[in-house]
Design brief:
314 residues; alpha+beta; Ribosomal Protein S5, domain 2; Alpha-Beta Plaits; 2 domains; 10 helices; 36% helix; binds L-homoserine
């Protein structure tokens, strides 16, 4: 008998992590979304959203990543039920923190548990990525993979989907800062439209080197190597001009002791890595906030750690 209700906690994530466009994802301990799924007698999907900037999120099932995933799974796995989805946003939407992915992955994980579907992680990621297609126009799976698996994820292949999951070193801390600015509708789709179609081999060599360095850093538990490999020569230069204070934030974070700084996902949030042994994450977060301020923008900044994937709360 399927469960009548499940409640889940889904983490924010940072995609790309420098050189791994659409390939790397990192789950964060804070912030998180809370998602409750309740089975109903009447067929159909009903969505309620509360919490941070809830008014900016559609409750129409076809326009909400959680609704899209629920619809897909109900069809794909012949789940004959009505479903109420209650999303309590703890993750700021449209900042580059995997907000839509968190809700989407929570629904995939929650329905899997509710109906004892016994899906693999790859199947869950595929289902959750349907939501990304609805919100960003492409089925990139870097955010949802990190939301499902936790810590650091490498999407070694999209077809067939194959992921490699690494635990983050215990000394690794991360700082996030984002400016208080209006982000355009379909922000991620717009940010993807500036990604260069042709790339000089020199830049590819640089990115492959840094991507290999990043994975080595996680494999070896070397925070400094992770930080210094967080360099993207391809996508980030094309996106940086849309982030006010990008250069100031980066410079300030490095000056304050970060070992690497990059755009978080499609931005405008920025992500810095700090080695607890040599740096102070609270100071780095404050310096990043000042960076945005010097460009004329108030900002939200916080320090957190890599974190676990989506999990059941009740
Ligand atoms: N890899 C994606 C991008 C993440 O950078 O466009 C967006 O959430």
């Amino acid at each position: 008998m399927p469960l009548s209700k499940v409640t889940l906690k889904a983490p924010a994530t940072s995609a790309n992590v420098g050189p791994g466009f659409d390939v790397f994802g990192l789950a964060l301990e804070y912030p998180t979304d809370k998602v409750t799924l309740t089975r109903g007698k009447n067929r159909g999907i009903k969505i309620k959203v509360s919490g941070l900037q809830a008014e900016t999120i559609s409750t129409l099932p076809d326009r909400n990543t959680a609704g899209v995933v629920a619809k897909y799974m109900m069809q794909e796995f012949s789940l004959k039920t009505g479903l109420a989805i209650r999303i309590e946003k703890g993750i700021w939407p449209s900042k580059g923190l995997g907000s839509s992915a968190a809700s989407a992955a929570a629904v995939a994980y929650g329905l899997n548990h509710m109906f004892a579907l016994k899906l693999t992680k790859e199947q869950l990621i595929r289902a959750a990525a349907k939501g990304e297609a609805a919100s960003a126009g492409s089925e990139h799976a870097d955010n949802v993979s990190a939301t499902i698996c936790g810590d650091f994820v490498v999407l070694r292949s999209y077809d067939p989907l194959e992921i490699v999951n690494f635990k983050a070193p215990t000394d690794m801390e991360v700082c996030v800062a984002f400016p208080h600015m209006m982000t355009p509708r379909h922000k991620t789709a717009k940010a993807r439209s500036v990604v260069p179609k042709m790339v000089p081999i020199k830049k590819i060599v640089r990115n492959v080197g840094n991507a290999a360095g990043m994975v080595s850093g996680f494999a070896l538990g070397d925070v400094d190597l992770i930080g210094k490999s967080m360099i993207d020569a391809i996508v980030e230069p094309a996106r940086s001009s849309s982030i006010p204070g990008y250069h100031e934030v980066k410079e300030n974070a490095l000056q304050a002791g970060a070992c690497g700084v990059t755009i978080s996902g499609a931005g405008p949030a920025m992500l810095a890595v700090v080695n607890r042994k040599s740096g102070n994450a609270a100071q780095v977060a404050a310096a990043m906030k000042e960076g945005f301020k010097s460009a004329g923008f108030e900002a939200t900044a916080f320090a957190t750690k890599p974190g676990a994937g989506v999990c059941l709360l009740e």
